[in-house]
Design a protein that fits this description.
three-stranded antiparallel sheet; alpha+beta; 11 helices
Amino acid sequence: MSKSIALKVIAENKEEAERQKNGPVADFAIGFRKVVINLKLQPVHETLTLAALRAGGLTDIPPNMTYDAATPGLWEFFRGVTWNDDPGCALFTDSREYNNELSSGTTWFSQFEAAKHNESLRSKTGYLLGRSHFGDLQFLHSMSSYVGEPAVETRDKVLLWCELMYRIVTGEFPGHCPISLVDVSRGGFTLMQFFNWETDPTPEKNLKFLLTRDTEFQKMEIERRALGSLFHIIQDSYAKGHTKRVEDYSSGHLTLGAIRTFHCYTGQDEEEHSHHDSFKVENVLISDLDSFNPYHGARSAIEACIRVMELWRNGVHWYDYDGKPGAVHVLEDIFKLAPDVTSGDNSI
């Protein structure tokens, strides 16, 4: 579930690359020296998000809707749920009128490949994309940042991001708020530890820049983008390549419980990771949650997102307020650690 728009990179010779350009193998294929980038839409995150939004009470979603029929308003959620995989917003063309136009993908791919092979490009001074997939921001995918990272530290960083996104959703942190003024902390971690004067973005940039790169889209809704990013980190936490959770079949289908291990992407088998991140979305119906049962973690991911959706719709604050329990308790439960939890590893 880590890549809503999966990039299947096929290394081929020049003759094969030329052949690919002569016939579409997906939405489009791009010759990139001796590599063909084949962007195939695998809208797993979008489909899970549609199911959660509909079940959570968003009434303008038909029971048989698929992501490609989504309105610009729904695409604001999708742009948020894509952000964790594309924090530089490189997979989309920025436009005042549209928020769903895919770019060529070459910038995303070149940065991804460069960061994979160059440690400095996945460090704090490197690409944001490199940090989120291979470096210190792997918690954006509910993964440990390095093999051996204590699970409690990974969880603290995950919950730090959940708090920030949720408080953007509720309007407590507006889009014009500079990163330097965001007062969130968890377990000794603060946002400024991850975005300082050596990083991209730097602390004087605001939250709109962080989540949209200052998009020109006229109908941008930062609250929806933040909820999408929050959904992504929740959904990833139920993917087999990201975590190991307690398994329970007593309800007649797999239900995933407390986290036993956060995995680390660095050193994992990339093909196996991608395999567990995907399922055939044509086999599910967003209004029928049972249709998601065959796919590991999908039903549990939707149900966790529904819980957060209901908090948002009911105006629940992050912390306890006016005698009412805050959203923090629900997120802490979603990311509950099992008694036998172990440190991060790169197994699957």
